[in-house]
Amino acid sequence: MTIKNVPPEKAAFIRYELENGDDRRKKVALQEIARTYRSGGRFAPDIRNGLELTINGLLSARQDAKVTRWCLNCIAQMGTRSGSMHSVERMLQQQVGDPEIIAAAVAAAAKLYAGQLDECDALGTVQPEIKTLAALQIVPPSKLDLTGFKIDVDAADDEVLKLALITVGLNRAFENMFHPRHTNAELVKALGQHDNRVVKQYSVWSAIENHGLSIHDLGIPFANLDSEPSNVQAKMLQLGAEKIVDLKERQEVIQKGSYLPTVEAREGLAKGLQSVYYDGLEGVTLDWYDIEGSLRVRELLAEHFARYGSTCGPYEEKALELFEAESTLKKRLYLGAEGTSLFGKLKANDLREGTPDMFGGDLDPLTTRLIEERKLPTVNVLMMCASPKDAGDPLRLDQEARDLKEQIRLVEKPKQDVVVTHAWAVRTDQVQMEVLNNVPDILHFSGHGGTGLLCFEDKNGDMATVSAAAVEGLVKLSDSVQCLVLNACYSESIATQVSAHVKAVVGCSVAIGDDAAIAFTRAFYRALRHGHPYRRAFDLALNDLQLLGMESEAKKYRFVTGSN
């Protein structure tokens, strides 16, 4: 394997994310470290030492379980015995009930002890199959005692099967390791039909990671993409974007994936595009970016545009436009453009604007204070959209999203940043999850409604109603929601009921037309971008409807001042 030095911009970005990101961003940065080492990348010694200290600090701080697991995965790739042994042994002792963390800790111990697992007393209580499979991720089979080692795939528990698939994906399993008559590729295909959604996910991951496997070793047909859970969709789309040979078929899968309702699935697709470009791909990705509501998906697409901007003219134009218009994307654009001619153009723009070090370098106290003063306050908006197929004429929710994004972008000299995340075709079992995951300041619903209820979707896309009491309960339990916007017919009664728990609520007294709903949304958030409070933003939105000749529609909106 060729050893490659990690570019300084990428190293700085990873460091910044670990030190400043939320749990999800920390996890993604840790995944990038592990992936970098597996593919032959290496950090400069001083950077590596600093990252190891940071990772051990995260472990000591009792992070989110996924962050903990990926910290251990990183130690398994680049940790040192002197720097990380204490942390790994502590995890083995404290995380007895979490098999995924235990497996990651075993792999880390195998790295630190160079395969001599008998030297690590903390491994004494670990299940033998898990110990062997986890160690195989790091050390060659010749260094392990595999005498009598055998796994009955039909009877093994799910945790053992996941580890077996990881060893296949990392190409660390010798052929026929799990069955004398079945190859590892056949194992991957068979477990693609497993009833555990995480085992299925790992089977697709194996096909992504192992370059000896192809799209034909996938045990799930792409024709079944819609019926798979979102975690499996995400991996299938990543695999399809990278490995479908027929470009017409690949384009169709990417087009379909860009419209799937869950952020997780679309994010998986965007990850698959990080190392992929072919002529005509921009016909899908540029339009996708313009309607994408998730910031984390837009970040990945922006990085993709920058990475291939020197190859594709429209990509370079888009990257330069985003660099000037959306400061939150600058780090991603720099990261994607590293080593290309576009990088110099981005730097030149930064120098003209006098932008200081973006990645938290050593700045004098005065400069640091000035940077903090220049930062805009941020309003996070979660826009949940639902248009059940049995609810009559479909709503133009995509048009509402496009208009909103364009109006926010066109605001000159904004007073605050308005970040909108769209959740599409929201089912009732996803409502609470979306609120907890996105932590919005403003919770916005666009869709159908009735007196005392909102219309979401069920698993079949049909109407499923949520009562006013349920909406009130959700808002009351949220620590973040300050404003509720109900751009739905007959929602005034819900607005009144919820008002005690927020600062402001917007609702509608009767039925609202599509054009009015679209116009109200873009004008309301445009006013917020200019720095106006909720009541003034509401009044400006009504005035915009009047200016557009929709006075009667403006009279249907209601603003309820909250008591929170």
Question: What can you tell me about this protein's structure?
Answer:
With 564 residues, this protein is an alpha/beta fold. Among the domains are: 1-145, Alpha Horseshoe (Leucine-rich Repeat Variant), CATH 1.25.10; 378-561, 3-Layer(aba) Sandwich (Rossmann fold), CATH 3.40.50. 54% of the residues lie in helices and 9% in strands. It has 26 helices and eleven strands. It has helices spanning 8-20, 23-38, 45-60, 65-78, 81-94, 99-112, 128-136, 158-169, 184-191, 197-209, 230-243, 247-257, 263-272, 282-291, 295-307, 313-325, 330-337, 341-353, 365-374, 397-410, 431-438, 468-477, 492-498, 514-529, 534-547, 551-554; strands at 4-5, 41-42, 378-386, 417-423, 442-447, 449-450, 453-457, 463-467, 483-487, 504-508, 557-561. The strands form three sheets. Strands 4-3-5-9-10-11 form a six-stranded mixed beta sheet, sandwiched between helices. A three-stranded antiparallel beta sheet has the order 6-7-8. A two-stranded parallel sheet has the order 1-2. α3 (45-60) runs antiparallel to α4 (65-78), α11 (230-243) runs antiparallel to α12 and α15 (295-307) packs parallel to α17. The longest helix has 16 residues, at 23-38. The radius of gyration is 26 Å and the shape is globular. Mean pLDDT is 85; it is low at 355-374.
Look at the helices and sheets and give the structural class. alpha/beta
Which architecture name of the domain at 378-561 does CATH use?
Answer: 3-Layer(aba) Sandwich
Give the C-level CATH assignment of the domain at 378-561: Alpha Beta
Question: Major sheet: order of its strands?
Answer: 4-3-5-9-10-11
Mean pLDDT score, rounded?
A: 85
CATH topology of the domain at 378-561: Rossmann fold
Radius of gyration, CA atoms, in whole angstroms: 26 Å
Distance between the termini: 60 Å
Report the β-strand fraction as a percent range: 5-15%
Uncertain regions: pLDDT < 50 for 5+ in a row? 355-374
The best one-word shape is globular
> How many strands, which pairing sense, and closed or not: the largest β-sheet?
6 strands, mixed
Percent of residues in helices comes to 40-55%
How many individual β-strands?
Answer: 11
Q: How large is the count of helical segments?
A: 26
